[in-house]
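Note to self: the last two entries modelled the partners one at a time, which told us nothing about the interface. This time every component goes in together.
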Amino acid sequence: MNELTSLSVAEMRSGLLSKQFSCVELVDAHLSRIEATNEVLNSFITISSELARSAAQNADSVIAQSGEESPPLTGIPVAVKDMLVTEGIETTCASQILKGFIPPYQCTAVSRMCKRGAVIVGKTNLDEFAMGASNENSSFGPVRNPWDTKRVPGGSSGGSAAAVSAGQAPLALGTDTGGSIRQPASLTGIVGLKPTYGRVSRFGAVAFASSLDQIGPFARSVEDLAVLLQAIAGKDERDSTSVDEPVPNYSEAIAKGENEALSKLRVGVPKEYFIDGMDPAVEDSVRKSLGVLEKLGATLVDVSLPHTELAIPTYYILNPAEASSNLARYDGVRYGLREPADSLQEMYARTRAKGFGPEVKRRIMIGTYVLSAGYYDAYYLKAQQIRTLIINDFKAAFANDCDVIAAPVSPSTAFAIGEKADSPLQMYLADVFTCPINLAGLPGMSVPCGSDADGLPIGLQFIGKPFDESTLLRCGHAFFKQSSFDIRSMARKQATEFAI
Amino acid sequence: MSANEKAIEAVIGLEVHCQLSTDSKIFATSSTAAGEVPNSLTDPVTLGLPGCLPVLNKKVVEYAIKLGLATHCSIQRESIFARKHYLYPDLPKGYQISQYEKPICLGGNITVRLKEGIKNIGITRIHLEEDAGKSSHVDGEAVSVVDLNRAGVPLVEIVSEPDMRTSEEAGAYMRLLRQTVRYLDISDGNMEEGSLRCDANVSVRYEGSEKFGTKVEVKNINSFRFVEKAIDYEIERQSAMLRNGEEIIQETRLWDEAKGKTRSMRSKEFAEDYRYFPDPDLLPLIVDNDWIDSVKNTLPELPDQVYQRFKSMYGLDDYNADVLTQESLVARYYDQAVSVHGNAGALANWIGTELFGRLNKEGMTIENCPVSPENLADLVHLIGQNVISGKIAKKVFDEMFSSGARPAAIIEQQGLQQITDESAIMAIVQQVLDANPQQLEAYRSGKDKMFGFFVGQIMKLSEGKANPQIVNTLLKQKLDE
Amino acid sequence: MALSKEDIEHIAKLAALELSPDEFNAAFQELNDILNYIDQLQAVDTRGVVATSHVHGVVNAFRDDVIRPSFSKEQVTKNAPSIDERGFRVPKVI
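The predicted structure of the combined assembly is written out below.
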């Protein structure tokens, strides 16, 4: 990483305001970094250089005019997961079925971020329609982990995570349906947050499993992350499920963590999140991190979330069911791929056969089955009931025992590309510590907390009460500052591998 | 009694789709207008573009509550939107948003008036849903074209209980529904243009049988004239099968208007499986009592209430009360007219015959009627006051219809006032008798019929303005001299 | 609840997916594995448990009945595989 691409957002902001460098220079530095590294990482599907440069020029004039008063993200490069529709920029969801689709409308989160000055540098790679935990399910090829390019970056937002980790952008947007922000953040050594369901508008996030999907930010520090979260959070009239809860000042919440550390904070440790078969390095690192939290003044409390082991099977009913419905619209009639055929039914079946990859087809098949006549009660309804039990677990823990929960993010560190490709079910188990949080609609954040023997990053997960992202940020930031684990020095190691 | 002689009765239930007349779509912001350029009333939500989400139009809910209250349904505190899946090019998302397990209205009824009396017809449920687009064939090509302007237009589906036994009852039910939605001003109720669509579930059984026969669904009845015809055809078809001991299969049949028959729809390759589940994009719809009460306060007087009031308040007979309450605007017109000078009976006749006759002839409706209720009331009043005769009144009415002028002004301008001055009329009588000595001779020799001849001549000479009673009296007096 | 090959065919038809013989065989195996796994939920007693459709318990989101500008012709046609002035062209609907 050169100097500009390794700065924090705050450093970029002050450099821009003090005219040490211009937005154009900042954006160009990132575009060069992308150009130099994308061939290896494959983290971007689309690089929007021209639009980015013109947005940067515009940002420079905003800064020239308004200085300190200019919006907080003015001129800051942001990578956007190709699951979010971007007006005028091709949006594919890493699927052949949407190849060439240029949306005539803008995702609300993207538009809010751009209104605050952010510059889109490109659209990042992902598992097709966000279905996966390794980014191998992309029709544009797998993304590679910047820490070890033979390994996966996690998924589905693997491109966004790799981009931020490798200095292609300081910030990125992803989506998280069962862990798709937190798990890749964990595997690439950065910070990633899945907001409370309803905190960020889903308008323009291509629907995967609508009752679980949320857009969220990636960054290399909690402070950076808070700036992007601040920009995208809040009620949107175009998403009925977005909630009209006041959006607090997240940077203030972080400052509180700095001043008061974590005193009086009760941190719940769920025993069900330390299971047989998890990587000992992960468990070790997370346990050590709990000690750090204690040193910061937090009280550790044992909590139980007894229905945790039902989360994966529940998730893999609800998720494919909703996915099968959401993906019914890709029929070759109004947009996207169409395979020619003589009859309508053939046109549908061939278009979808050609346009969707194997994992997408698998989920559509499972989802179609569990919703079909005679099976709805046994599968979908049952899963919705168990979802209630899982929600109640968290409610009880937060009501009686703790203010925030700390847990691992992923049972393992980054695995080798191809390692789990043969067993879909094995891959599904990667969501074990993350998907319960989506089922419960809670906010969850992954913060780097250590590394394994191979130097691969490990993440610590904070899980909060509904709409209490502030506490997550406060914990994450306090932990980050106190942790003996220095992600930035690690990042420098990583950077040597990508030195231009 | 053998099977052949036993009477057969039909059991009929109707599923009626009614398009609500909101400005924008149920979940999207495009206009609901008809007849626009194909696909010009679309937006990301209507086209089912990726990442787009439905947001419920509040007015649609208000309209459904109105209809629910008017049909004595219980408005559900909680209702849920569900996704109904099937692939068809006119359905952009691959599913239709509808209400399934929890509709907004349950358990109502409406009372239809039939020749033999009134009948209560139960309403099982009313639910909200979005309309599909329209696909049409292109002549001479192996393609169809899809216009999505209609996609997302709000509909209510009104499902009746299987309470109807004859096509007449079904027709009356449909007409009352149409009348009701028009009174409520929530739909234009136009069946020919597709705002009101009817699917009929028809079965037959031997009278006295407890069990229902196998139900056949008749679709594509898209004109008021054919509701009864299509059902009658289906009843006859099934009755013949029942008598012949043939098995009636559960199926969907299409009404073919040109042939006057129902025909079986090509059986699907596999049974429909709609895979309903609650739409995660739409929140539960909660209608509390305050909301219901506030809608209740805006409810207009309903067709049957107006009908009963016209009978009791204005002493109208069944026929006139029915005619004047078919459309709320007509009822309002009549109410307004009567409020000026009374004359309820005469005005009912005038509206039912002269006004409707003229509107029909001109292809106009009461909405753009050039004769205001006040002016019509004045006209009828002037007849009652003997200012003009009924005959002259028709002439005045014609003038009112073409110019919109007040009757008094027309009468004044054209000198049409009735002549009631006895000396003036006597002068005309004298003039007529003088001009027709032979006829006078004939009358006096016993030909009483000649009296009518003289009256005719007098009226002609007075240009119809002479008061007929006075003419009669004076003529009689003169002839009997 | 094991899936038969006929079930797979039926599901593929409902889902409008044409499966190659290889895909079909893979689907048969994988779907049964996955269903076998999720079938563990059948053992959970959920009598009397309310089903969660919406996780945050918020109700009633509305918009006013206001028309906003629709798409331009260009916006409708740009991404369409086949369209003319009468509409999106598809193989004949029977």
